[in-house]
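Tokens as discussed.
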């Protein structure tokens, strides 16, 4: 039973850290979300930093599992990279409201000069290494593959940041909304990937 409660605490904390931010989420917020007393809460975690470490480990495990699934089911490297690009479509409602869960967490921890920043940044490293490996499977040299991986990470983070900043309202001279902006940028990244796959 204790293990189940601990997992629920970590799961609820993960969501609250994403929606409210790490700094603005209290023990009381997490305990209320789980529906346990503060005393029971402290039995599992003595500090918010302990919870943060557990949340980062959960996110790393979930990201590993997702990348492994794409490797198994994604087909060729181009198809697998499209799975990464299309995260923006699958999660666009959350991204428009709260931003990218990886980018928002690392950004907040950087402002706090928090010692867990390097651990949280491992999520970006996971994506970077995986993307670089896909580009290498497409026949690109290691340095070029890593450059492409960083470019794709940077562009997807930029899309998430702007979608979050402007929300799902018209925010350009052309009158497209946040959801349409995300769709347009995803299409652009896929077109860029097609040019890379064609050797251009």
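Sequence:
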């Amino acid at each position: 039973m204790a293990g189940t409660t601990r997992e629920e605490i970590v799961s609820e904390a993960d969501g609250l850290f994403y929606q409210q931010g790490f700094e603005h989420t209290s023990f009381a917020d997490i305990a209320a979300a789980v529906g346990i007393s503060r005393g029971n809460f402290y039995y599992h975690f003595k500090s918010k930093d302990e919870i943060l470490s557990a949340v980062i480990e959960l996110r790393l495990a979930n990201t590993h599992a997702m990348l492994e699934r794409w490797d198994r089911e994604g087909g060729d490297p181009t198809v697998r990279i499209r799975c990464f690009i299309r995260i923006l479509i699958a999660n666009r409602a959350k991204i428009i409201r709260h931003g990218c869960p990886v980018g928002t967490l690392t950004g907040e921890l950087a402002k706090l000069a928090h010692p867990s920043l390097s651990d949280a940044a491992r999520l970006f490293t996971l994506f970077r290494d995986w993307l670089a490996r896909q580009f290498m499977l497409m026949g690109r040299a290691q340095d070029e593959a890593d450059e492409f991986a960083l470019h794709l990470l940077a562009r997807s983070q930029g899309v998430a940041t702007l979608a979050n900043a402007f929300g799902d309202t018209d925010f350009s001279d052309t009158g497209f909304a946040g959801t349409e902006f995300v769709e347009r940028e995803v299409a652009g990244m896929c077109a860029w990937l097609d040019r890379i796959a064609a050797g251009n």
